[in-house]
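---------- Forwarded message ----------

FYI, see the DUF1640 domain-containing protein record below. Original note from H. follows.
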Amino acid sequence: MSVSHLTVYGSLSRAGIPSDNANEVEQAMKQMVDNGVEGVRGDVRDLREQVLSKADGQVLRAEIVAELHKVINDLTIKMFGAMLASTGIIIAVVIKLAA
């Protein structure tokens, strides 16, 4: 006999509830608790499927880092090109003014 059975059944019996009725109430309460536990387990299973695992997070992080490196490289190339163009324009202006 479980502790909960002894507690519920004993309490109902001491309160004057007939033995059969006390047992039915105890069984009904046990079933409600069991159903609640199974419902929570199902919810946890559903959440577990939706949560990002540590391995998934590491893969995502690696992808983000790779993408950031690509963006930084692209920006560096564009800035270098802009600097070359600016230098060329400045040289052309200086040559034009010197002539």
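H. also flagged this: The mean pLDDT is 85.
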